[in-house]
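Appendix B, example 12.
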Amino acid sequence: MFLVHAIELCRQGEKFDYSNLNCAAKKFGRLQSAENLRKLISIRPRQVRGIFSANRTKPCSLSQNVEITGRGRSVRRCSLELRTMQLTKRKVLLLLAAVFAVVVGGFAAYDATRDNTGMLKLYGSIDMRTVELAFEESGRIEEVLVEEGMRVAAGQQLATLQKRRYEIARETAAAQVNVAQKELQLLLAGSRQEEIDAARAELEAAQASHRFAQRTCARETKLGDATTKLRVDEACSQAKVSLAQARAAQEKLDLLLAGTRIEQIEVARANLKLAEASLADAQRALENCTLVSPSEGVIRSRLREKGDMVSAQSAVYELALMTPLWARVWVDEVNLGRIAPGQKVRVRVDSYPDRVFEAVVGFVSTVAEFTPKTVQTEDLRTSLVYEVRATLADPQGLLRLGMPVTVEVDALPAEGA
């Protein structure tokens, strides 16, 4: 600081007695050569060399006086020690001013959420849930029916896919159901009457043949030596064959009369259910080619356009749900006891200063967090606060997502009231 003061006086056209300037320069570590000093204060080189060559071994002292001789002016003495003390006082005053500002700001932050009546004011923004809407099937988009910002109702059509592939699948499944139904009906109906009659005729023929073969065998056996053993064997063998044929005809008739086995009917019924399930799935896939709104809301983003190929994971719209709608605000620990679920509060927005929205506190967080930067009270953004959600009604649709709000909580009742 001594050297700076010296340079300032020299620039004003005054001359120095530089007997101690070299020592002060070394003390402050600002100059390294006489040439640097000459450039800074623009004095004559001979004077500078003489200054830096004088009193090299003389010790330095911050309290030494510097004699300044002006050109044709009176002589003044400046004390380096006094100047240093003055600068120290300035630093102290600046530090005290900064501490005072912090204290005043703390009180202002403490009172930022209150008014003169003791009403608690909390700050935050409007919040709502959002849904990403996507098709359940893959395909190419055929139509996109709504734009961003449009309000949609529950069940309203939003977009469609090309349906031809899904229509073919449904027709195929319907044909398979028809086949399964006919097979089941055939089994349930059993044998036709004509088939039964034919089986009975075959049985009668087999029985007649068997009776004839039995008589022939008996006759040949009675002839004894009048016949040959070969003829007896042939007649008796034919009787046995005819008996077997008669029994087979009887079994066939019994099977036709009994109808279809129950196991075959159950298998046919299971095949029919499988075909019907395939048809239902094909019908569902065809219906899912139309994207509808799950509930009332506002389209925030339109993410796909006509002709885009999409899958079941590809979002087409982002929908902001209008119900439930709440104000998300934050309260500090000091005022946490004044908020409870079910408590009625008032919500105000800058867009409608004369309008009050009635709300009910639905959620108070149990975990402290730093206030988000979106809150409009800058003094509270670095404080630990608790999240509060106040559910409100907006039948006219005046509020928008992210709109800054102020929640007013009435003062606590007086003791003994």
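Residues 1-35, 37-83, 107-112, 413-417 have pLDDT under 50 and may be disordered. The radius of gyration is 54 Å.
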